[in-house]
From TrEMBL:
Signal peptide: none annotated. It comes from Entomospira culicis. InterPro entries: MECDP_synthase, MECDP_synthase_CS, MECDP_synthase_sf. This is 2-C-methyl-D-erythritol 2,4-cyclodiphosphate synthase. PROSITE patterns: ISPF (PS01350). Belongs to the IspF family.
Amino acid sequence: MQEHYRIGLGEDIHRLGAPRPLWLAGMEVSPSGGAIAHSDGDVVLHALIDALLGALALGDIGDHFPPSDPAYRDMASTLFLEKVLPMIHQRGYRINNCDITIRLERPKLYPFKQALREHLAKLLHVDIEQISLKAKTSEGLDAVGEGEAVFCQVAVLLARQSVPLSL
Ligand SMILES: [Zn+2]
């Protein structure tokens, strides 16, 4: 792969209601009402990982961390990210920017937005200006709107290490 840029798109949805914290972008945003999932159910990190893998046509999160593997049970998704980032860097790419949309009814994420961006920037080893994060609801429609699910979509642009950041 010699392209200057590679774009990736990822999305994830989990049902809510597990008796554990709700994790988003590696942060606990609620002590209860967590995502029902094999791992910690962090939709932001799962969608982000799919976007990163997708940008380099490396498959998806399930190919690399199969839910059938007991090793990944209740695993913190930050550990998945720590395994995926070197795959990007080893192929000569880095993150130019990523644009994230989370849809959740409760808790309202607006007060967490800046902290989530800062935390993601730290996890990805990038500046906060490279991370866009939008927190929306579903206006009472669909499973998210009824408070039964949390959804996230992530677009990411990877650039060759030799290409200057475009901001
Ligand atoms: Zn997931």
